[in-house]
Amino acid sequence: MDLLRSHLSRVRIPEATNRVYKSECCVSFDTPRSEGGLYVDLCSFLAFGEEYVGWNYGKSGNPVYLHIKQNKKPVPEDRPLKKPTLLAIGVEGGFDNQEPEYEEIHHIVILPDYITLPFPSVELPEKVRIAVDAVLLSEGAEKKEQLASWTADKKKVTAYALNLQQINNGVIIPPTGWKCSKCDKTDNLWLNLTDGMILCGRKNWDGTGGNNHAVENYHETQYPLAVKLGTISADLEKTDVFSYPEDDSVEDPLLAEHLAFFGIDFSSMEKTEMTTAEKEVDQNMNFDWNRIQESGQELEPLFGSGYTGLINLGNSCYMASTMQVVFSTHSFFSRYYKDQSLKSAFDAAPADPTIDLNMQLTKLGHGLLSGKYSLPAEEKQDGIPPRMFKTVIAASHPEFSSMRQQDALEFFLHFLDQVERIHSGRPEVDPSRSFKFVIEERIECPSGKVAYNKRADYILSLHIPLNEASNKEQLESYSKLKADKSSDEKEIIIDEIVRPRVPLEACLASFSEPEEVHDFYSTALNAKTTAVKTAGLTTFPDYLVLHMRKFVFEEGWVPKKLDVYIDVPDIIDIGNMRSKGIQQGEELLPEKGSDIEMMQPAHIFPNEDIVSKLAVMGFSYLHCQKAAIKTSNAGVEEAMNWLLSHMDDPDIDDPIHFGPQVTGPLVDEESVATLISFGFEEVVARKALKASGGNVEKATDWIFSHPEVSTTMDTAAAPTSSSTRAVDDGVPDGTGRYKLLALVSHMGTSTHCGHYVAHIRKDGRWVIFNDTTVGASTNPPIDMGYLYFFERIND
């Protein structure tokens, strides 16, 4: 006891605001039910398994721990079955789920000699008794986070719906073909429910997302509500509505009425009976669930290294299927398992390892790949719960923090962005690079002159050309059969349904097909015209990810999932998709000049104080600079008045030319290097930094809002630069031959509902990963994938 009393200064009593971990180790998936139990640090309230508690003592110096051990109670053979009084499972009065019961034993342990004292005991110091009681009575951090996720799903009703003003300006919103009214963005678009303007969303830290035009429109007009296009479906509760004055996602109880104002009407979708087409969709859905999950098949359970399941945390199958595939790649296997131990990750982590992405990725990697939690002792493995990983990866993305189903593609891209971010400055060890490649677009206008533009990406999103189906005769016969049965009021049976079969080669070919670009401004013709765009890849990644665009909108805003099979060969060769840049004899489009360069005296520079105050209000940094210059830095109010009256000027987005009188360097070389590490070319980075006062974040915004600058810079450098540009630096390249490694399949009418399952080729056979179910696949649904992962074949 004297030793314990000497350490009382290192014992804390947890408060309501403290996160107390008592269900799972912070660096492994050990629990109180593990052989060594769990040790809770009575100073930091972090928990550690028996193998790892010594690491924490060595790092923190905290010596006093609460040891929690749960032992399974023996089940008597004559255990009576209780009669249920509630329609529930595993709760008092509900059905008995036959879960084993555990008894929990507690001790106080003092490190480093593991001196053990019993608890409860009146001989223990009062502070220790109070601290332990508080830990045991507290709601664990894991449960708190889970409850917060469920609570976060409940949106509040907006105060702006009832009296929302809607302007009758004749705007009718089509079901497809949307584009931002102020730029060329065609995704992340929001419809303002007052004026019907379609504008892009907020810019993310890395330049993804939108160009802030929707929020800028709110600051200019004060129109409060906007709905995200692409999320509108018959279930209006799942539609994303954002309130700018309330700065949150909200529920609009009059959403159907507000959408109908702009021609989006759901009343015709309310039916009391299934149509023949709907019955066919329902049959297809049941078939998908059975086929993708291999229901009814005798799956051989698999255990050991690389065969560990993931517990579904509540609609988290999108994350589980994606991460199983990710950790089947050599790059992530090496980075977070083979080349990094749990100890090294813990030593490099901050004081709280639960908030460190590197630590939690290493924990997840070791949990999935070590085989420690996949032992063949039971008929079915328990799997591991990726709670801490989900908390960390979702911290910067509120949708993934919720308990709602999400799009596996969106999660995959968000995940790779976060991994790239934590490896900033260390690209040589960044495993996300293995998925990265460069797309080059060639645009030719009627003048015959061309422009080239490059962008980096992680996935190749492919249109599915149904007209290229290989079973057209069977489809025609099936169409006649449906017509005959419909006239006879007979139902189609599941065995009679025929789906289009489209070769993957046709989908890949559609990516490179010429595409018309309307309203393209030609600097050669000094007018808007229709140009032709083609695309190819300048680099081939180590792992090629193909996204099949199976979800479309039909007329009347009816969401539809294409019932189609994709015939995917085991090996593909995309060598013919390599883009070779500007060719001999091609003439580049001239770079667009800016009117502002001629109009603005060179000696006036924007006052940074005025610019920053305007930027805080949500205005574009470049626009704020122009407002300060145009008002000769008279003040914030004068600059704002000018800005509000010139938002629609045709040259408002043109870069500012500060003139040749500037002395000294205009940009910081470190800032240039930072932008180059993001994948931008040096000449573009310098121009952006000049136009944004040297601010890296604003320069990134400027680049993405001026894609034509990147295009002209790429083409201007082409004749004199080598075939490998700055945007290509650090991106892997090799042959275009790939072998199918894995696929993620989806069941359901939308990517935000249903279920995701992964099939992965391991040790020469296909394996199904369906949450905690891991088994040898007997009939992998290769033709039903949503995401396909190919691994490069190295000659």
TrEMBL record:
One GO BP: protein deubiquitination
Alphabetized Pfam families for the sequence: UBA (PF00627), UCH (PF00443), zf-UBP (PF02148), zf-UBP_var (PF17807)
Known EC number: 3.4.19.12
Family membership: Belongs to the peptidase C19 family.
Keywords, alphabetical: Hydrolase, Metal-binding, Protease, Repeat, Thiol protease, Ubl conjugation pathway, Zinc, Zinc-finger
Purpose of the protein: Recognizes and hydrolyzes the peptide bond at the C-terminal Gly of ubiquitin. Involved in the processing of poly-ubiquitin precursors as well as that of ubiquitinated proteins.
GO molecular function terms listed in the Swiss-Prot or TrEMBL record: cysteine-type deubiquitinase activity; zinc ion binding
Domain UBA: 605-646, 666-706
Positions annotated to bind Zn(2+): 180, 183, 200, 213
Protein's name according to its UniProt entry: Ubiquitin carboxyl-terminal hydrolase
Active site residues of this protein: 317, 755
Domain UBP-type per the UniProt entry, residue ranges: 156-266
Alphabetized SUPFAM superfamilies for the sequence: Cysteine proteinases, RING/U-box, UBA-like
Domain USP: 308-793
Coiled coil: none
UniProt xrefs under PANTHER family: UBIQUITIN CARBOXYL-TERMINAL HYDROLASE, UBIQUITIN CARBOXYL-TERMINAL HYDROLASE 14
Catalyzed chemical reaction(s): Thiol-dependent hydrolysis of ester, thioester, amide, peptide and isopeptide bonds formed by the C-terminal Gly of ubiquitin (a 76-residue protein attached to proteins as an intracellular targeting signal)
Keyword Ligase: no
